[in-house]
Every structure is written in C-alpha cells, then in structure tokens.
Amino acid sequence: MKRFSQFLLLTLVAVTISLLSGCSRHDNNERYILVTVNSKLAYWQTAAAGLAKAGALYGVKVDVRGPETYDPQAEVKEFQDAVALKPAGILVSVADSGLMQPAINGAIESGVPVITIDADAPASKRLYFIGTNNLQAGRLGGQRVLDKLHGKGNVVFYTMPQTNMDERLKGYKDVFADHPGIKVVEVFNIKGDAGNAFDRTQHWLTEKGVEHIDAFVCLEASSGKDVAEAVRRNNATDRLIVAMDTDQATLDLVKSGLIDATIAQKPYTMAFYGLKQLDDIHHYPVDLKKDYGTDSFSPFPRFVDTGVSLVDKVNVDLFLQERQEAGAK
Predict the structure, then answer these.
(1) What is the residue-wise DSSP string for 107-156?
(2) Which CATH architecture has domain 134-264?
(3) pLDDT tens digits along 48-86
C-alpha cells in the first residue's frame, strides 16, 4: 500500500510538471516587432501599449520601430532591419504599399510571418490585415457631416496618400454622392506634417476670393487640433470640424465643442490582438508561402475588423475616462 501511495505521488508530480511545462511554451528570446511611421504620434503610443500588454502576458520580448516623422522610405528600412533580426513575427502599418510590398514579400520568403495592422498592403504576401473598416469609418463621418450641414455646404479634407485614408475618403464621398448640395472643394495632402493643415485652414479662412468652407474633415490623426487652432484664432467657430482618432488633445477639443466629433479606432486592440495571432503562428507553424487569400480552407481570415465609433460631446467623457484608466495601469 505504501509503495502504491509513493507511485501515485510520483505520478501526480510528473503530470503536474508536464502540465506546467506545456503551459510555458514561450522563451525569453522570443521577440515580436511592430513597425510603423510617425512613431511619436499618440496613436502609435497607444498601439505600443497594446503590444506591451500582450508581450507581458506571454512573457515575450516586444519592440516598436519606425521613423519619428512621416517617412515611408525610412519605414521600409526599419522593416528590413527588423526582418534581419529574425523575430518570431512582425506587425506593420504600411505608409506606402508600393514601397513596402517587396519588403513584406521578402520577409515572408525568409520565413518571418507578417501581419499588417491599421494600414494595409493588400497586394503583398502578408498573411492578413487587422484594423479598421476604413470605408465604414468614412461613411460614419460622412453621415455626421451631412446631418450637421443639413445636406448643403463646402467641405475640405486633410489626408495623406495611404490606402486606409483613400478608403475613408471614398466612404465620405459615398455618403455625399446622393446629396449634390455637398461640394468637396479640396482634398489636401498634409505630407505628414500637421502644421500644413493649420496653414491650409488659415488660407481658407483668411484669403480673399476663396470659397466659404463649411466643414473641415481630417482623415488622419494629427491634424484635428491644428485645424481647430486655426478656426479658433479666426473666430470661425461656426465651421464644422470632424477629426480622426482619440488622442488627448482631440478629445479635449471635442469636449470643449471646438471639434464637433472624431472617429475612434482601436490601435491598442490592433497591436494586442496582432501579437497574439503572430504568437499562435510561431508556435503552430503554417506554410507562409501559400496563397491563403484564395484558399477556402485557410486558417486565416482576410481581414479582422477591430471596430470604429463616433465620439462627440455626448460620449466624450467615457473615452476620456478610458484613456485615464489605461494610463494608470
């Protein structure tokens, strides 16, 4: 009986050790990298927090790389440097899909899994895209503009040449298509510098002989506060401003009423969920070179929609509270 008890105890110990070993599948050298552009933007700091949270949960290394200004060429170089480190996986937000596509394809060919987040390179061999349904984001903003202008007015957009912003612009124009009273006067490329949005707004508010602009719409994260500052300085607070994303300055301006509304994305979720998916691919490998886009039995989706919502004075306090709580964790 005593021998049986000892055998049972040893068996239980062995099973416990086995289970614990199975749960700890990660090692200290496992690394996941997020590559982006304008890495100092609050938007990407939020994404970095999501990446860090997932990394801490799994006990793996994480790294965020990318130029501190809008520089697509520099982003490609950062991506290539990341691939050279042979990480377990890379998340990338693509500033210029034409420039980044060969680099992504090269990473896949070398055995490094790549998932795009926020901004896609759909023609590349990336495994899939995690981010906003940007067409829907544009339609949500477009309906807000339409309602606030009562179907009539001149609109200026601030944007950059990226696929996600092109899709947002299309979403706005889809809403405006059946309302000829809404006129798109200009789609202005800020070239990665929110100061250009300020200067262009000044132009529309101060130059003689230009058309009266009723609404300024920002399709990217940085320009909302600069457009609002130009409107404030010129006492043109009757103009409608619809911004993009939920950095502290933008939310404060929504609360004050200077910005009417902003379209909220989930960069934290994109990075958090993206790391978890790369981790799964790393530990349960698949054939990276296969075209899963045309495979009806693919283990991957083509697109994971992380959601979008409109923030205005009605619900802005909730978003401010969530930002405060996230920063305290």
Answers:
(1) HHHTT--EEEESS--TTS--S-EEE--HHHHHHHHHHHHHHHTTT-EEEE
(2) 3-Layer(aba) Sandwich (3.40)
(3) 999 999 999 999 999 999 999 999 999 999 999 999 999
